[in-house]
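Thread: quick sanity check before group meeting

JM: Hey all, I'm pulling together slides for Thursday and realized we never actually wrote out the predicted structure for the chain we discussed last week. Dropping the sequence here so it's in one place. If anyone has concerns about the input, flag it before I start.
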Amino acid sequence: MGLLVGAIAAGCSAIIKLSEVAPNFAAVAARLFPKYLDQSAYRIVNGSVQETTKLLELQFDYSTH
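JM (edit): ok, ran it. Output follows.
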């Protein structure tokens, strides 16, 4: 979570991939994060290998504008 705090403080957006190993935390986070964080800037992803693989296939634009 420390990296997420840094991203928020820097004004960066983030995709938060929650661990399938901690389903109780994932359920609470998936319920609470959208209440307190802008959903257009911070997205929650639940799942395991298939979802992680899809995230890693995405092409992100890391350039500054």
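AS: nice. Helices lie at 2-9, 23-36, 49-57. The first strand starts at residue 14 and ends at 17.
JM: adding both to the slides.
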